[in-house]
Design a protein that fits this description.
The chain has 345 residues and is of the alpha/beta class. The protein contains eleven helices and twelve strands. Helices cover 35% and strands 19% of the residues. Bound molecules: S-adenosyl-L-homocysteine (SAH).
């Protein structure tokens, strides 16, 4: 399939030439697609009718908004999008004081199998194309009429398990002539695919790498995350040191607190010991209970204790502010609920 929305400007130029068109058409089309977020060829009014007709042969990747939920607490908007093949993905817009942040999915489902996560319950369906990752952001901009300044890859899927499409997505998103999002305003979150972390460091992007750590040692990490059986925590941390030395970007560690599993004061001290030589920041997230899973979140006091302990050991730490608590919980639960409802009908 020729997916024009996933092409770089250079590729689009070559493609235009192959259609017998002038290369400058590429720039016009690129701008329609990535700057103005056009959803159809028809809209591209500065192209001749002939060319628009010719382009109709190449279906334009465009997501259909199936559902939007808006939080009355904080204005968070959760989108459920339908892809051209009928698959569903979800994305979230979070309005912050410093600008709008969009959280997007990178795969339909996920094969990483983390024990607390709803996105992985049905396994991996398929990778998303670069155009399908971009269009989550484009449709949200078109729906709200608002600017997006931050993009986080923390929706469904493991970004580094869809590596080539991820790189193309990053290039298109940050390129001049498109949305031109600042590299520093991008966050890629991974459960820790070690070889890909080394690869990403060598791409020389100034983006934030977020590592889903969730444990102070291998034993606990293996209980929560199957990937920990493949790569030890030390291997993950070594890759993070390398990422920092290559890019100068401070690492974010995500740590979902699960009551009775990884939330004790001893766990906090051990974690601090493991991270003390790293330039990093820890983001604590009381686990979101998922219907199909048994995990419980610790009470506020225990979360605060964990945070204080880390701080006393000199670690930078924040407790993730919960957004959209009144609309479907985080992490793949909107899509999950949709799929389950469909099956139960
Ligand atoms: N696959 C990537 C990105 C998607 S998950 C990764 O693993 O980082 C985004 C973050 O949400 C990860 O830190 C993930 O571990 C966390 N997460 C998933 N389900 C959760 C839940 N039920 N409660 C709290 N955090 C969860």
């Amino acid at each position: 399939m020729t997916d024009i929305k996933s092409m770089t400007l250079e590729e689009l130029k070559d493609f235009m030439v192959s259609l017998g068109e002038k290369p400058f058409r590429a720039k016009q089309i690129f701008s329609w697609l990535h700057e103005h977020q056009a959803a159809s060829w028809e809209e591209m009014t500065n192209l001749s009718r002939d060319l628009r007709q010719k382009l109709e042969e190449y279906p334009l990747t465009s997501l259909h908004t199936e559902q939007v939920q808006v939080s009355s607490l904080d204005g968070t908007r959760k989108y459920l999008f339908r892809l051209d093949d009928g698959n569903m993905v979800e994305s979230v817009l979070m309005p912050y004081r410093h600008g709008n942040s969009v959280c997007i999915s990178t795969q339909v489902g996920c094969r990483m199998g983390c024990r607390f996560c709803a996105s992985t319950l049905g396994g991996l369906e398929r990778n998303l194309l670069p155009s399908e990752m971009l269009d989550q952001i484009y449709r949200i901009i078109q729906d709200t009429g608002e600017k997006v300044s931050n993009v986080v890859l923390m929706g469904t899927g493991e970004p580094l398990d869809n590596y080539d499409n991820l790189l193309r997505f990053l290039a298109l998103l940050t390129e001049e002539g498109g949305l031109h999002i600042s590299q520093r305003n991008l966050t890629v979150s991974t459960c820790g695919l070690v070889p890909r972390i080394y690869d990403l460091a060598r791409e020389e992007y100034q983006l934030t790498l977020a590592i889903s750590l969730h444990a102070p040692n291998d034993e606990i990490r293996r209980q929560l995350m199957p990937i920990a059986k493949k790569y030890s925590m030390e291997e993950v941390l070594q890759a993070c040191r390398d990422y920092f030395s290559q890019t100068g970007r401070r690492i974010t560690f995500e740590y979902s607190l699960v009551a009775g599993v990884n939330d004790s004061p001893g766990n906090a001290s051990e974690l601090a010991g493991r991270l003390k030589d790293l330039n990093c920041h820890v983001n604590l997230i009381p686990v979101n209970p998922v219907r199909e899973r048994e995990n419980r979140r610790p009470d506020r006091q225990r979360v605060d204790n964990f945070k204080n302990k880390l701080e006393k050991c000199g670690i930078n730490v924040t407790i993730r502010r919960e957004m959209g608590a009144d609309i479907d919980g985080a992490c793949g639960q909107l899509r999950r609920r949709y799929l389950t409802a469909e099956r139960e009908q």
